[in-house]
Amino acid sequence: MTAVQNWIKKENNWYRRMAKVSSAEQLLEQYNQGDRNFEGSDLDGANLSGLVLKEINLSRASLRKADLTGADLSSALLFQADLSTAILNRVELSRANLTGANLSRSLLTGANLHKTILLKASLNGAILLNAKLTQARLREADLSEANLNSADLSEAVATEAKFVGAKYSLNTKFPVGFDPIVEGMQTD
Q1: Which pairing describes strands 167-168 and 186-187: parallel, antiparallel, or unpaired?
Q2: 147 CB-near residues (< 8 Å, 6+ apart)
């Protein structure tokens, strides 16, 4: 078998392992059987609170209004996922990749986003009270109108990110050299 044929076989096997699900029960059952690829699944409004879903692939999945309170999605792949208006309080998203994800108007109170990739992600209107965004990559992310009271953005990379109208408090920690007033932020 040639190298190209081996690669095609490997890719076809990976594709077959991709499982689209439409309920929390299906997701948990298949995740517990070892499946990790749930790309494009429709989990709008699903209750996934408290679940451990480390290294899961929910890229391009729809999770609008889903409840992920206290869930562990560390090292998850959520590329272009729609998490708008989702409840993500105390969620574990450290080292996750949310490039291009939609988190607008979502609740992320106490969320751990340490070293999370949020390139070009939309977090406009999101509530990030006490969220940990240390060393997060926020390049070109939209955090306009977000609530960042007491959030920790120390060592975050916020190049070209939008913060216009975002709220912050005296307890909010910013990267060295970051000026919230120049960025158009407002104290709460």
Answers
A1: parallel
A2: 126, 127, 128, 129, 166, 167, 188
Tell me the pLDDT tens digit for each residue of 89-98. 999 999 999 9
AA letter at 176 = V
Distance (Å, whole) CA 143 – CA 8: 41
- The Cα–Cα gap between 131 and 153 comes to 8
pTM: 0.89
Sign of CA dihedral 69, 87, 30, 80: negative
68 and 49 in contact (C-beta within 8 Å)? yes
Q: Pick from 103, 105, 48: which is nearest to 79 by CA?
A: 103
Reference 48, options 103, 4, 92; nearest CA is 92
Secondary structure of 139-164 in HEC code, one letter for each residue: CCCECCCCECCCCECCCCECCCCECC
Residues 63-77 have pLDDT tens digits of 999 999 999 999 999
Query: In sequence order, which residues have a C-beta less than 8 Å from that of residue 34 and are 6 or more positions away?
Result: none
